[in-house]
Design brief:
It is built from 10 helices and 10 strands. By secondary structure, it is α+β, with helices and mostly antiparallel strands. The strands form 3 sheets. It has a 5-stranded antiparallel β-sheet. Strands 8-10-9 form a 3-stranded antiparallel β-sheet, with helices on one face. Strands 1-2 form a two-stranded antiparallel ribbon. A hairpin with a 4-residue loop joins β5 and β6. The chain is elongated and about 145 Å long. The model has no long low-confidence stretch (mean pLDDT about 80).
Amino acid sequence: MDFLEKEYYKNTVLQYLIAVGIFVVIIIALRIFRYIILKRVKKWSAKTENTFDDFIVEAIEKTALPLLYFTAFFISANTLQLTEKIQKLLHGVSVVVITFFILRLITAGIKHAIQGRYSKHDESETKIKQMRGIMIIINIVVWVLGLIFLLDNFGYDITAFITGLGIGGIAIALAAQNILGDLFNYFVIFFDRPFEVGDFIVVDDKKGTVEAIGIKTSRIRSLTGEELVFANSDLSGSRIHNYKRMERRRILFSLGVTYQTSLENLRQIPLILRDIITSQEETEFDRAHFQKYGASSLDFEVVYFILNSDYNRYMDIQQAINLRIFEEFEKKGIEFAYPTQTLFLEK
């Protein structure tokens, strides 16, 4: 028993054994929690459709448990009589470790929120790269704030640093306001999602398919083949027509027949047009009317919808409708009108 009473660095052997025992007991308890309770909870969360419980389990496993391991060491160490120098060192290490894991939890939470909102809509490689770029910027901001917090806790005067950072930030913002504006609008495009890669859009008199959305510029492949490069600020400030998200296309067209067409045929033409359109797949008939008396024709106006946003599909359907109209009019002897003038001479 005399051995247990021996003192080393102001602590007896018994006190060292008690500290080690506390550390071992806490570690064993954490191990039991991890391999029995947490493992079962992890299996249960994997079966659910909700991803929030998966995030909680992952946060406990990767953040809470390592922090609790350090807490076990901290508690056991504080049962001993420590010198002032070691206490300060232990306090500094504790602040660094706690700050590290809290920042890690914050960035993981932000990443989970972003992925949960956008990965369901688009899990393409392009969208994943965009999310990675966003997370790099967010991580830089979070860790810089964490560094400032650590410097403040270690007794450094950060007022001058923050003031200098603010002045430098203002100078950089003035010098690169266009770049920062495009960067800000990149965030707007990412979160608001007015268009995505693969969408066919029209911006003013330019049109094409979106190929890439960058931090400063976005690139569009025009119908004639050349690449159009837009600043993100220009796109955010423009009226954008996104045809990719068009659920159905409204079609309006007119046709004219000659004044020599009989009354019976004039009454039949709207019914003929309706039957032709409804016989086509992916179409929804709206109306067909004898609209007006033209200068050299009797004009009919037709409106229908195509339940498909693809332009080529629209042209195929319209071509089929035009051919059927020509065929049916030929059967009934209805003549299409074209600009003519009839001159009547009196004897």
